[in-house]
Amino acid sequence: MSYYEVNFDGLVDPTHNYAGLSFGNVASKSNANKVANPKQAALQGLEKMWALTQLGLHQGVFAPNCRPDLHTLRSLGFNGTDAQVINKVAKTEPYLLKACYSASSMWTANAATVSPSCDTSDGKVHFTPANLSNKLHRAIEAKTTSLVLKATFPDEQIFVHHPSLPQHPLFGDEGAANYTRLVDSYGHTGLAIFVYGEDANSNVKPQVFPARQTKQASEAIARSHLLDYAHTLFVQQNPDVIDQGVFHNDVIAIGNENMFLFHEQAFYQQRQVIEEIGRKYQGSRPLHLIEVSSDDISVDAAVKSYLFNSQLVSLPNGGMAIVAPSECQTIDGVERYLASLCKASNPIEEVIYLDLKQSMQNGGGPACLRLRVALSSEELNAVNSQCLLNESRYQTLAAWINKHYRDRLAESDLADPNLLLESQSALDELTGILGLGSVYPFQQV
Ligand SMILES: N=C(N)NCCC[C@H](NC(=O)CCC(=O)O)C(=O)O
């Protein structure tokens, strides 16, 4: 049977804006209050999906949450018509309006942790939507994300959908952004590496910025996904780099199949971590462990360029490509480093640079925008086929974006009740395009 890695990219919401909501995420804070261009953001994301499709890869589309989250606003005591709720919250609690208007569900690396059937003892594909409990604007995503996951992966004989973990700091879970799977081929049992920022039983933790992923959350997911501990590792992120803006492990390390690219400061007690990875990896193809030195790329350059947030993809005819954000071409030394990687002895053959500036300005690079799901051909056939990209769906989505999205969104626009109506009408049409049914609260009344 053939196996594939399918990337499910988050479609960018019509309400994409810069609200400075993510303490610890340098780009989010430094671009707070910038005027956003939702149409450009969505088209940039769609072009990435199309570029990967054209490489011969299977590409999925993941629907966003609907914003603003009126349900949360109403649960906080704002009442009246939808327009009155917006009006009141805009006047009295603008921070809450921004949180409930965030398009952050576009970063689907944070949507869930996914364990492929080769790794789970019941032979099914397991999903746990992330609770994203560290940030208010993200903690409200899980409910809709869970419905979208179920509508995208509907067959209960093949896909298992777990509830998200309890909303408590002990179980802070940011999904696949802190999970890497090393395997010699997608169809084999892989080494599941869970990276956490904080362990409730240890004092090793960042001092400036929050650790978003806890060891307790990672362990709970490994348990419920029925992973074999012989093929599972729990590894602590270096707290010093969290304090330098590395708020997820996918900002400092990236793995695909038998290749692992990581910064020399990525992990706490790194030498032991890498030795253990080498010991536990069981593939017949050799593991390429590439440690990037601070002399080559400083942590600051890694955070600014998002080099490690590139997508590392296996090409249909062998070899790998690295899909990097175009910011890598503007930070000193990074483009040169990537060119040298292609020449060195490892599977990477080419670098593809893509413009994702609208997402990047909120701290979301190529890898943040996609949820990886390794699937057999039979499992792929069980995916909702309308959520897979082909040329006609690409054209349909481009036309849908051009029809519904604004090309300018400033903070003051969030108080405009028309934005809510525009967003609902766009997403209502989207659920038809992607065949999702009624996943949004406004469709359920
Ligand atoms: N690295 C991965 N996998 N994901 C990136 C997520 C970026 C997101 N930014 C934001 O939520 C910014 C929203 C704002 O400020 O408007 C976050 O910090 O959670």
UniProtKB/TrEMBL annotation:
Positions contributing to substrate binding: 19-28, 110, 137-138, 212, 250, 362
Keywords: Arginine metabolism, Hydrolase
Active site, renumbered: 174, 248, 368
Pfam families: AstB
Annotated GO MF terms: N-succinylarginine dihydrolase activity
Catalytic activity: N(2)-succinyl-L-arginine + 2 H2O + 2 H(+) = N(2)-succinyl-L-ornithine + 2 NH4(+) + CO2
Enzyme class: hydrolase
EC numbers for this chain: 3.5.3.23
GO biological process per UniProt: L-arginine catabolic process to L-glutamate; L-arginine catabolic process to succinate
Entries under Gene3D superfamilies matching the protein: Succinylarginine dihydrolase (3.75.10.20)
Entry keyword annotation includes Translocase: no
Domain of life: Bacteria
Pathway in which this enzyme or protein is active: Amino-acid degradation; L-arginine degradation via AST pathway; L-glutamate and succinate from L-arginine: step 2/5
Family: Belongs to the succinylarginine dihydrolase family.
Subunit structure: Homodimer.
Function noted in UniProt: Catalyzes the hydrolysis of N(2)-succinylarginine into N(2)-succinylornithine, ammonia and CO(2).
HAMAP family: AstB
Name of the protein this chain belongs to: N-succinylarginine dihydrolase
Encoding gene, per UniProt annotation: astB
